[in-house]
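Just wondering, can you check both lines?
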Amino acid sequence: KPKIRRTGEPTEAAIRVLAEKIGCPDKALNRRCLQSEDRSAKDLQAFSHYWANLCSPVATLEFTRDRKSMSIIVKEKDRSENTLYVKGAPEVILERCTTIMMPDGSVKPLDKKMKNIIFDDYVEKMAGEEALRTLGLAVRKELDPRIAHFKGIDDDSKNGSLLKDPANFIKVEQELTFLGLVGLMDPPRPECRPAIDSCREAGISVVMITGDNRLTAEAIAKDLGIISPGKNAVSLTGREFDQLSDSEKTAVLRRCMDEQGGVFSRTEPRHKQVIVRILRTLGEVTAMTGDGVNDAPALKAADIGIAMGISGTEVAKEASDMVLTDDNFSTIVAAVEEGRSIYSNMKAFIRYLISSNIGEVASIFFTAALGIPESLTPVQLLWVNLVTDGPPATALGFNPPDLDVMKRPPRKSDDKLISGWVFFRYCVIGMYVGLATVGIFIYYFVLDEGAADGHTTVTLWQLMHWDQCHAWGDSFTANHLEGMIPGDACSYFTYGKAKASTFSLTVLVVIEMFNALNALSEDGSLLQLPPWCNPWLCLAVLNSIGIHMVILYQPFLASIFGVVPLDIHDWALVLYFSFPVILIDEVMKTFGRIVVDRQIEAMHVHQAELRQEEEYVQSGNTEKME
C-alpha cells in the first residue's frame, strides 16, 4: 500500500481522508476506489478532486477564535450564485443554524429542542464517551447579494465589500443549514500515559490547555491521567476562567498544583499567558509547550518555552528555549530526568572538590596546630590538585541518574546549591581527610614500631617539640630513618621524614579516590550504585592511582617529589587510614535518605488523600472527610 503523508493542517487532512471514505455520486469511481482493496497512488485523492472540479473557490473566511469557525465561499457549476460552506465548533454552528438538511436532501426547520437533542445525544457522546474532537458542518445558499455574485479578489465591483473586514465574517455565517457532525480522533501516543505518570511521581503537575471543547478535553485528560475520573477535578473553559476574579484564578491554579493536574478547554492564546503569569507568581517553575504563532507570547513568558520541532512554526521555535525534534511529550520527561541528573552530577563534582580541598587545608592546619614537621610539601600539594584530582572530578560528570531521581519532589527555584546539611557533610569529610593525612604521619613516627624499614619511634612530645632538637644532643637515640644524618637529631625530622611524607601523600591521594566513589550519588549507597555504574570514574581512579605509583617507584620522579617506595605492609596501613571515609559518608547518606524518603512519602500521602477525596465525590458520598 502507498504510504500517505499529510502536508498542512491535521484537521484539513483528516477531512480530506473522510471525503475519500465517503465517495461520490459517480458509481464507476466508487467501484474503482471504494470497492478495491488496494487503491492506487493516483486515486488516493480521487474523491477530493471530484468535488473540487464541481466548484471553484471564491473567498476564504479564515478561522478566528472569537467566532470558532471558518468558511469558504465557492461557485458551484450548477448554480448561478455563490454558496457558503462552514465548519467549526458544534455548539457555535448549531446556534447559527435555522434549518437542517435531512438524509434525503430535504431541508426542515431546526428548532431549539432539536438543537438540544443533537448536542446532548451526539456531540456530548462523541466528545465525552469516545474522546473525539467534533466539528459541525453547515451550508448557506441564500447569501447577501453583495456576496452571492462576488467573483473573487479580482472583482472590482462593490460585491465583496462585506468581506474586507473580518469583523463581518460572523454576520455572513448566519441563517445556516446544518449538515452534520464530524468526529476526529487524535489519539495520544502510547508513551504519553507512562510519561505523565512519571511526572506525577516526580511531583510535576501537568495542566492541559486546549482549544477543544470541554467534554473532549476531559475525556482525553482522564485517559492520559492528567485528571482523575472524579467529578472534583479542575476543569474550566476559557470563558469560565475569564469570569473569575484574580484571587479566584490564583486559587484554581494553586489547586491544580496541589492536585497535580487540571484542564482548561476552549481557550485562546491569551489564556496561556495569564496561566503562566499566575503560576510564576506562585513560585512555580513553568514549562509551556506550543506550536503555533499565537503560542509565541506564552512560550516567551514561561520559564522554559518548548516548541514542537515537526509541527511547530518558526515563530514558535524562535520564542522557545527548547525544541522537541520528535514532538513527543515523553521527550520532555526524559529531559527532566537528564536535567535532574546533570544538577546532581554538578553537585557531586562540587562536593568532591570542596571536601577534598577542605581536607588539604585541614591537614596544613593540624600540622601547624600540633607543631609537627610539614607532612606535605608544596610540590606534593600541587601534584595532588593539578594531576590526581582532575580525572575523577571530570569523570563525575558521567554519573548515572540516581535510582530515585524521578521520585523526588522538584527542588524550589530558590533552593541553595549548598545547603547547611551539604556544607556540614563537606566539613565532616574534609576534617577526616585532614586527620587521616596527618594521623598516618604521626603514626609512622610514634607508633609504627614493627615497620619493615626498622626505624625507631619517638614520643609524641618529641614530635611536637621537634624544633628543640638542637638541645637534645646524645640523649636522642632514634635512628634508622632513610636520609637521616647519623648523630644529628634534627635530621630525623627533616631529611628523615621522607617515608612519613610519602605515607601522608599516598593517604591523601587514596582517600580522595575513595571520596570520588562517594560522589557517585548524593544519598545513594555504594551497595545500590556500585563504582562500575560509572566506568569513566573507575578508569579515572585507576589512572590517578597509576600516576601516583609512577612517582613512588620511578627513582627520578621520587627524588623530585621527595617520596620513597612503599611495600605491602605500607599499603595496608594506607588503606587502614583511607577506607573509613567511605564508611563515614555512608552513615551521612543514610541520614540523607531518611530526609528524602520522608519528603517522597509526604508527597505520596498528599496524592493519596486527593485520590481518596475524588473517589468519595465520584461514589456520591458527600460526608465530610475528617
